[in-house]
Design goal:
The protein is an alpha/beta fold. It has a single domain (about 10-245), classed as 3-Layer(aba) Sandwich (Undecaprenyl pyrophosphate synthetase). The chain is about 40% helix and about 15% strand. It has eight helices and six strands. A six-stranded parallel β-sheet has the order 3-4-2-1-5-6, sandwiched between helices. Strand 3, helix 4 (about 110-125) and strand 4 (about 130-140) form a beta-alpha-beta unit. Helix 2 packs parallel to helix 3 (about 75-95), helix 2 packs across helix 7 and helix 3 (about 75-95) runs parallel beside helix 4. The longest helix has 24 residues, at about 75-95. It is globular and about 55 Å long. The structure holds farnesyl diphosphate. Farnesyl diphosphate binds near residues 37, 63 and 79.
């Protein structure tokens, strides 16, 4: 079938993903939750490939939230081990594909092996100029905003000088543009404390596909759907069409 959906938007520069449903996917197969996480790694590979091929510049994955620390210790340990193994196993391929790895979150609370593996891959891919893959680890939006407030206070910035730009400049990765598209798998429709500041204008894409089943085609379909959406940024439809006719791009 020919898809005639109008493509109103250009490609998103930054896509953020809440990888959800690993536990349920495993339970449906009579397996433990770790089995689902392990299969989720293949989905990560697939999405990194698709994002790189499409020309998306930044891909942020919610790999471990602040709230995830309350999971059973065995699951936390397995997730950390999976992360270390995956980073060590993928570093050459990431570098070969020009993918740069970065991370955001309370990284000090991660186990030493995990921090060391992250540091290693970040250093070995620092020169890469293709996709930037950002892992959000021990991360939550409220944590990041609280850290930003602390940092502004430490800097002694006078109250009258504090603007949105000040807050942005004190966030974890101030040089990274806000995601235009958020994808969440597994049918849940929540932000779950992810990138609360940065997602202010993002388009939200919810799919019932469980993360371990999510593949390149699902990612491409989400990007395609995003490109057909009308993004108004608070303006009326008429104002938006006038701006488009004048070839202006909507202000964020
Ligand atoms: C949410 O599913 C998923 C996570 C908390 C972990 C995601 C981690 C991976 C996919 C593996 C490693 C990642 C990288 C970057 C190598 P859930 O456990 O909450 O599922 P449920 O809602 O069905 O219980």
């Amino acid at each position: 079938m020919v898809d005639t959906t109008a493509q109103a938007n250009s490609l998103p520069r930054h896509v953020a993903v809440i990888m959800d449903g690993n536990g349920r996917w495993a339970r449906e197969r009579g397996e433990d939750r770790i089995f689902g996480h392990a299969h989720g790694v293949e989905s990560v590979r697939s999405v990194v490939r698709a994002a790189g091929e499409l020309g998306v510049e930044y891909l942020t994955l919610y790999a471990f939230s602040t709230e995830n620390w309350s999971r059973p210790q065995a699951e936390i340990n397995a997730l950390m081990e999976l992360l270390v193994e995956s980073l060590a196993g993928e570093v050459d391929e990431l570098a070969r594909k020009g993918v740069r790895l970065r991370s955001t979150g309370a990284l000090d609370s991660l186990p030493d092996a995990c921090r060391a593996a992250l540091r290693d891959v970040e250093e070995r891919t620092a020169h890469c100029t293709g996709l930037t893959l950002i892992l959000a680890l021990s991360y939550s939006g409220r944590w990041e905003l609280t850290e930003a407030v602390r940092s502004i206070v430490r800097a002694g910035t006078p109250e009258v000088d504090i603007t949105e730009e000040t807050v942005r400049a004190h966030m974890g990765l101030p040089d990274v543009p806000d995601p235009e598209l958020l994808i969440r798998t597994s049918g849940e429709q929540r932000l779950s404390n992810f990138l609360l500041w940065q997602l202010a204008y993002a388009e939200l894409h919810f799919t019932t596909v469980m993360w371990p089943d999510f593949r390149e085609d699902h990612f491409r379909a989400a990007v395609h759907e995003f490109r057909g959406r009308e993004r108004r940024f608070g303006r009326t439809g008429d104002q938006l069409r006038q701006a488009q006719a004048g070839a202006e791009s909507p202000a964020p």
